[in-house]
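Continued from yesterday's entry.
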Amino acid sequence: MHYIIVTEFETPSETSCRIKGLLSTDAKNLETYFLGFHINCSNMQDFFEVDISGDQVLQILGGSSFNVISQSMAIENTAIGGRTVKIQKLVWTMGK
């Protein structure tokens, strides 16, 4: 079984997702999919990042035979521009 980790970062102004552990073929397929819909994404060496919500990413990955194995959530306070902002992180472990 191959495992990946999907992390959603949500602030009051934006939501994005980071996917770690994708095989290069899966990452390339995702990049092609998102660019076809003009959705901002970045295929980096260690992770894949896209500017959509986690539930949308889960649905797309589910179509590629990935299943959710576990889910967790945390809220952290982060200083951005001299003020404190709460960032909600949702983390899913998926496998296929």
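--- second protein ---
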Amino acid sequence: MWWPANLVQVSLFRALHEEEVRPKGGLMRLQFFLIVLISSFAYYVVPNYLFPSITALSFVCWIWKDSVTAQQIGSGRRGLGIGSFALDWATVAAFIGSPLATPGFALINISIGFFLMLYVLIPIAYWTNAFEAKRFPIISSHVFDANGGKYNVGLVLNETTFQFNQQGYDDYSKVHLSIFFAFAYGLSFATLAATISHVALFHGRTIWQQTQAAFRDKFDDVHTRLMKKNYDAVPQWWFYSLWLIMIGLAMVACEGFGGQLQLPYWGVILAIGVVLFFMLPIGVITATTNQQFGLNVISELIVGYMYPGRPLANVVFKTYSYVSMVQAITFLSDFKLGHYMKIPPKSMFIVQLVGTVVASSVYFSTAWWLLTSVDNICDPSKLPMGSPWTCPGDDVFYNASIIWGVVGPLRMFGRLGVYAKMNYFFLFGILAPVPVWILSRMFPEKKWIRLINMPIIISGSPSMPPGTAVNNICWLTVGIFFNVYVYRRYKSWWVRHNYILSAGLDAGVAFMAILCYYTLQIRDINGMRWWGLDLDDHCPLAGCPTAAGIKVGDCPIFH
């Protein structure tokens, strides 16, 4: 298992540090990297500051300005994104990472899932009015009441205890979702179930054999043998000590401060148990496809049933499980990078620990500073035109806290909820990899069958929400062009430049984003006021309902 994302960093480090003779008529890898970095840096001022609208160009909306259906089909931000595209690397890589680091077979699997979900499942469900879908936008990460308006969580939440108010809920409305958001949750159920099934079927024997070999100190991997031969391993007590200390501090945080976080100590233990259970299957998928599935939905589901009506407990439990998984996978990935670069394991461990402490301190300080210094942060309706502080990820996080924490899964996906049928996706996910595995056993000479990855296909649109159709369309287009077409037609160029190109594009965007913020945006100087400054695709009707008699904002009323 090669951890594809590490190849970008390995290629960059080699370009920076290895001596290289310039090929005749070509460029050294360092020269190529610098050219890409400077070009990306210079260009990103356009989508980031001067012309943000090119992050989602939706021509269908411009042609049919008064048609709700056309804008639902053509909007790249709030619709199906047909005909929508972007001229911005940040739009491509913002939510799923660089497509240039994802293997071609994984990109093809994702493309199949994305097409089936967004252009088959969602249109059929919406235009047949499944779950009363037409009363709400076709794609939205918000929550709605029965009349199609934004859900007023204050009516169902006790402001004193910060817990669910049953009487207010009975007097108000059940929580409703856009058809896309509902199926996104259903497919999340299926994805995790398929991950367990897929890894057990396709990698179970290998995992068992490698586990036995590890206990006997026998390793087939050449990088592992070289590391064992030349460096001392990290003592196990380092890991156990750090693990126990962090668990203890998490319990203190939950039980202390007057219990404001609502989560008891056993919630931390349960969160760690969830991580331990999913760590191996998700790690295998990440190490082979560069796609990492989160534990956010399954953790919300578990604590939502066990500790309902407590939104803070729900988000804290989700954070401990989801972030712990992400950090653990990142930790493993970095150790694999250490294998590739032959970095002593002890040095890698210490650097990761120091980096985590520094980064978490900086993140917390920055978040605190932004929340206290940026007016109307995370409220796009009140922010000045061109402001970058729209917080799409935090918006999804907040709405998820309403779905799983305030109202709870029993009233959403259980017998009391509107979306109880979504639970069938668990069964679908468990069974989906089985036919592929059977075919791979029946036709072992057909190597391409083993490349069919049902967890990846089922995940469909891995970044949505908070990502949008235009993010996925551009990501897949760029990825397939380079990692399928260029890889097959110009393999020597791909081997030499593909990962360097990815690193240069990422670095240029990052440096320009920092420069723009500290020189202009920190002073609320957000560019010249014109229609292109709006961080939108100018499809205002894409978020409108189409059910008869529903009145929402400036949307037309259907009869």
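The chain has a mean pLDDT of 92. DSSP finds 21 helices and six strands in the chain. Will compare against the first tomorrow.
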